[in-house]
Amino acid sequence: MAAPLDDMFSFCVDPGKVSACVDVRFIDNIKGKGLFAKQSIKKGDAIFLERPLVSAQFLWNSQYKYRACEYCLRALESAEENARRLSGIPGLSLPHPELCRVRPERHQACPQCQVMYCSSECRQAAADQYHRALCLGPSKEDPDHPINKLKDAWRSMHYPPETASIMLIARMVAIVKQAKDKAQWQKLFSHFCSRTGNEEEEIAHKLLGEKFRGQLALLHSFFKGALYDDYLSRWFTPEGFRSLFALVGTNGQGIGTSSLSQWVHACDAIQLPAQQKEQLDSFIDQMYKDIEKGNHSCIPNAEASFPDNNFLLQLSALSDVNPGEEICISYLDCCQRDRSRHSRHKTLRENYLFVCSCPKCISQMGELDMTSEEEEEEEGEAEGEMEGDEMEDEMTDV
């Protein structure tokens, strides 16, 4: 059974720390680097398990009261609390509460600002890596604190569904500030910067959306006021800030964590008499009706998952992979991958600024440049709504 995940956000793995069964190679100036198999990989095999260079909870996700470890993003609310929040049913009770893996007795808060961690290990790791530079202390709830003003500015420009977080860039700055070897971390982040100025600007505008494309300068002003550091002065120029935006926009990976999801999988595994198992399955199905929520090669041979319910990313093979073969995930969801070549290319150009040349796209080169029937219908309906309401002169962000 699937379970809804609360989305977080992370920024890419260290290219120097991938598994022994793969290596990173430079492909060309358009695609940049790629991941290639060094040996045969079987379908279902874990290719690597890696933590991100930097991660942060989406700001609206946090605003909506999803409680997660500030460092590893592990869920802090119990499966029952998770279900109650998502369903809006305060009295909802889950059977088999012993299957919930959340351990509140291990949770710890920062002594200064009270942000929460799932363990003392995570609290110490955050303090050592970045939190000392970002800790707000008693000013955590002060709306006039420069970091809170930066967060508010981001939320006012980047509504759900969220695709990035300004706090990823803030943590990059904090990591360098606290690092003993600042140059090494700067160099590590620079591995992922390979866009032209025009491409970076387009990505930044895409993250903000059309309605706020003129407000990048305002966001830059808040960012500089909150975090400026002489050593990183180049990052605080308009061009440097735009480059960081593009870096996050093209290298980020969403993270899904959920104590409820883990509880569901644990329920699937327990041995119960047939009638009790049927009753439990029926309960779970009904619960998901109450809390249902909408959640690159076009033929990927790998997919990312988060088996430990935190920021540790596992890349697993969807099919057998031969030595020398490039390992690809898909930037498109299942429905998007089933659309026409033209529709897929349109989505990829708009969101990632590249044209896909995977085997599927090459084999469909002879197709007319037309969108899928479903997409044409959607676009037609949207146009009809706009024509029917001429007084509405701009799209509404949802």
Q: Mind explaining what this structure looks like?
A:
- The chain folds into three domains: 1-51 and 312-329, Beta-clip-like; 59-251, no CATH class; 336-367, no CATH class.
- It has 15 helices and eleven strands.
- The chain has helices at residues 59-63, 79-87, 120-134, 146-157, 166-178, 182-190, 197-208, 216-227, 238-251, 259-269, 274-291, 334-337, 341-352, 359-363, 373-387, and strands at 6-11, 22-28, 32-37, 46-50, 54-57, 108-109, 116-117, 252-257, 302-305, 313-317, 326-327.
- It has a three-stranded antiparallel beta sheet. A three-stranded antiparallel beta sheet has the order 2-3-11, with no helix packed on it. A three-stranded antiparallel beta sheet has the order 4-10-9, with no helix packed on it.
- The two termini are 28 Å apart.
- It holds the Pfam family SET.
- Its EC number is 2.1.1.359, 2.1.1.372.
- It comes from Dissostichus mawsoni (Antarctic cod).
- Its main location: cytoplasm.
Brief descriptors of the model:
EC 2.1.1.359, 11 strands, EC 2.1.1.372, 42% helix, alpha+beta, three-stranded antiparallel sheet, Beta-clip-like, 398 residues
The total count of helices amounts to 15
Q: In whole angstroms, how far apart are the ends?
A: 28 Å
From the alpha-carbon coordinates, what is the Rg to the nearest angstrom? 22 Å
Computed structural class: alpha+beta
What is the spatial order of strands in the main beta sheet?
5-1-8
Strand content: 5-15%
**Largest sheet descriptor:** 3 strands, antiparallel
Query: Which range best describes the helical content: under 10%, 10-25%, 25-40%, 40-55%, 55-70% or over 70%?
Result: 40-55%
Low-confidence stretches: 1-7, 11-16, 288-295, 382-398
**Series of H and E elements:** EEEEEHHEEHHHHHHHEHHEEEHHHH
**Morphology call:** globular
Count of beta strands: 11
Number of domains: 3
Mean pLDDT across the residues is 79
GO biological process, one term: methylation
Enzyme class: transferase
InterPro entries: SET_dom, SET_dom_sf, SMYD5_SET
Protein name: Protein-lysine N-trimethyltransferase SMYD5
